[in-house]
Design a protein that fits this description.
single chain; alpha/beta; 10 strands; globular; binds NADP nicotinamide-adenine-dinucleotide phosphate
């Protein structure tokens, strides 16, 4: 990747990160990696006690000094400089509608994959707005909505044996500065490269592709990721 395209330009070291639904596997995994990279991280939950317990467990599991606190989703939305949405698709719209005021002006990173599962395996759901990311943008008109981290396995993020995470994170959005910040955030995870993946109208394919990756994982008993060549 040329210097002009590299995301190192965005200096994000001092930014705090909140994770809505941070008590789940994906939220805990991202929280752990960003805390290890030196960010102050807020775990959000519908239940502050559950968030505090998850935060304390994350801190206790690491030998390094990390800063992780547990808050309600409402408090976490207000506290974080960057706010990651890591809730199930089912609760997505309702949660974001309730937090629209708190999230105004912030970079919001949606990693939600609207998927269904039946006896043939995983499949992409039809979403009226086009994608989870577009739904977020619709209900958060005052926020800088981006989409990223759809293909990152929570198992890998939480595995203390995995130092280098071997994948590219596609970052989508309308706002160049915001997507550059989120690319830089992705690159706080050792091994990861953040790659601009298009406007939000192209988020559906990225979210849907997770169904293919889950099918790969099931067949090959792995945690597959993607790499873009030619950069
Ligand atoms: N797991 C992965 O490897 C992975 C990878 C890439 C992307 N993702 C995406 O990341 C999101 C989270 O995945 P996950 O596996 O961590 O899911 P999860 O464990 O099922 O849910 C995450 C958290 O969301 C909260 N939650 C559950 N239902 C909710 C609702 N109706 N409204 C508001 N909050 C609710 C819960 O926290 P509280 O009960 O504490 O509020 C839960 O701990 C999903 O949209 C998924 O598509 C997951």
């Amino acid at each position: 990747m040329s210097e002009e395209n590299a995301s190192q330009g965005a200096d994000i070291a001092g930014l705090s990160i909140s994770v809505l639904g941070g008590t789940g596997d994906q939220g805990r995994g991202l929280a752990r990696r960003f805390a290890l990279a030196g960010h102050t991280v807020h775990i959000g939950s519908r239940n502050a006690e559950r968030a505090a317990k998850v935060a304390a467990d994350l801190v206790e599991a690491e030998s390094a000094d990390i800063r992780v606190s547990g808050l309600t989703n409402t408090e976490a939305a207000a506290q974080g400089d960057i706010v990651i949405v890591a809730v199930p698709w089912d609760g997505h719209r309702e949660l974001l509608v309730s937090l629209a005021d708190r999230l105004a002006g912030k970079i919001v990173v949606d990693c939600v994959n609207p998927l269904g599962f039946d006896k043939k395996g995983p499949f992409a759901l039809d979403v009226a707005e086009g994608s989870a990311a577009q739904q977020a943008a619709e209900v958060l008109p005052g926020s800088r909505v981006t989409a990223a981290f759809h293909h990152v396995s929570a198992v890998i993020l939480l595995d203390p044996e995995v130092d280098q995470v071997d994948l590219d994170v596609l970052v989508l959005g309308e706002d160049r500065e915001a997507t550059d910040v989120v690319r830089a955030l992705a690159e706080r995870i050792p091994g990861v490269r953040g790659v601009f993946g298009g406007r939000l109208r192209n988020a559906h394919q990225v979210e849907a592709f997770t169904a293919n990756l889950i099918a790969v994982n099931r067949r090959y008993k792995t945690h597959a990721g993607i790499r873009i060549t030619g950069l």
